[in-house]
Amino acid sequence: MASGTHVDAVFCGSDQIARGVSDGLRTAGVRIPDDVALVGFDNWDVMALACQPPLTSVDMDLEGLGRAAANLLLAAINGQPTPGRQTHPCRLVVRESTAAPGGWPARSSSR
Length: 111
What we know:
By secondary structure, the chain is an alpha/beta fold. 32% of the residues lie in helices and 14% in strands. The chain has a domain at 9-60 and 90-103: Rossmann fold. Strand 2 (37-41), helix 2 and strand 3 form a beta-alpha-beta unit.
């Protein structure tokens, strides 16, 4: 921000980092999401909901991911390994730290 480079969005690798970015932006007089949209990662409810404004975040479904990993491990122990890359869906939980193009408020999600 100090360099004068225009930034209109920040994606952070965790909600905790995004919380710090949010605090820093507000201190610098930057309005979220009016001036800069902000997105976190991991949808840690305690952190995302305590952020001002509440933080849009990527939810990795860690419970489901752990369950899938355990099932793969048990299958491998039973002689049925699943080689290769496994994928697991994630979802974007939209909250007030992002806005739709044109300045319309983003939809809120309960989680």
